Amino acid sequence: MQTCVRVCVGLFWRGCVRRIQSKPSCSFSSSSRQWSRWNSWENLSPLAPQDNTRILITGGLGQLGIGLAQILREQYGSENVILSDIKKPPSHVLNRGPFVYADILDYKHLRELVVNNRITWLVHYSALLSAVGEANVALARKINITGLHNVLDLALENSLRIFVPSTIGAFGPSSPRDPAPDLCVQRPRTIYGVSKVHCELMGEYLHYKYGLDFRCLRYPGVISVNTPPGGGTTDYAVQIFHDALSTGHHECYLRKETRLPMMHISDCHRATVEFMQAPQCQLSLRTYNIAAMSFTPEEVAQEIRKHLPHLKVTYNPDSVRQTIADSWPVRFDDSNARRDWGWEPAFGLQELVSDMLQSIRNKRATDGLSIS
Fold it and tell me: 134-165: per-residue pLDDT in tens?
């Protein structure tokens, strides 16, 4: 069998020279055997300097996509950042920049979007979260794993830089919990977590075997104002702020002492952009933990009461979400991210609570809603 060597050389935005990757390949016979796209080296074009970054965000109407798109558009231009989803976007999203329909399970259509729009970066946010995934395992497997394979194939074929988030849910009850390091036993107990471990390992495999520029951050619970909770186990930490300003009462589905790592959405977006822009020669890992703070429902309630003393919180643990939370880390060790590419959060618990309450007050006033 003949072999050939493909050498990919590229220059990065901040002047870092990409490592030279030599990759063996198998020549194809004229038989009708169907080869995996991951083995089809003849179809891959060499990596070239990126003069014009063009970004596609899948699952763009979820908690993270719209805000990330806004930040990236400020840096790369509105027309160079394309949001996509399978839902109809609100008018304010359409007014801010390009939006396209994209089903991550439709590989052919995704390929057309990448080629026709000259995409160079792909941010893959499409996923079913922890609690929702447990309620529909078959759908979660399809979206979180089959959809992942589609975007990895596209990134490999088209020499894209690809970012896929992971999660605290990628850890399991046998993982170190306080803190959880970047590299350790994981073995999660949810389909969401299993799919994210699969993502981390598959991306790393494709990076080391084929040179795919795969990047992944394990997000803690992300707290934001503009997007309603979407079925995650940490959603209480968003809902409690809305309840505090609307009814003055929050019923929490976790025990009051359940400690989990959390992060303000502004820190989450900034970490993602800084990580995507980091020269590859600075990265010792393909998947990093990022951390900001860690708190319990009772601790965040006490901090809110410094602003709203009347807040009442009752606890009615949900067995599914409590079991999931009990299997997750209490804190993240993000020392590698801080060392390799300079990660540092801006929001602690006090800053998060003050910002969330003020932002929700403003939003309720704009919407003509009363404040408790």
Answer: 999 999 999 999 999 999 999 999 999 999 99
Question: Rg (Cα) of the chain, in Å, rounded?
Answer: 21
| Tokens at 324, concatenated | 């999931």
Cβ–Cβ contacts within 10 Å for residue 149, how many?
16
Q: What is the DSSP string of 279-340?
A: -GGG-S-SEEE---EEE-HHHHHHHHHTT-TT-EEEE---HHHHHHHHTS-SSB--HHHHHH
Q: Please tell me the pTM assigned to this model.
A: 0.85
Burial of 18 per CB tally in 10 Å (0-12, 13-18, 19+): middle
Angle at the Cα of 197 from the Cα atoms of 205 and 344, rounded to 5 degrees: 95
Q: What dihedral do alpha carbons 267, 270, 272, 278 form, nearest 10°?
A: -130
- Strand-pairing partners, residue 3, are 26
Q: What is the pLDDT of residues 29-44, one digit of tens each?
A: 332 323 344 444 334 3
Q: Residues with catalytic annotation?
A: 192
Residue 289 tokens read as 């933990």
Q: Let me know: does 212 contact 151? Beta carbons within 8 Å.
A: no
Beta-bridge mates of residue 216: 287
Kindly report the length of the chain: 372
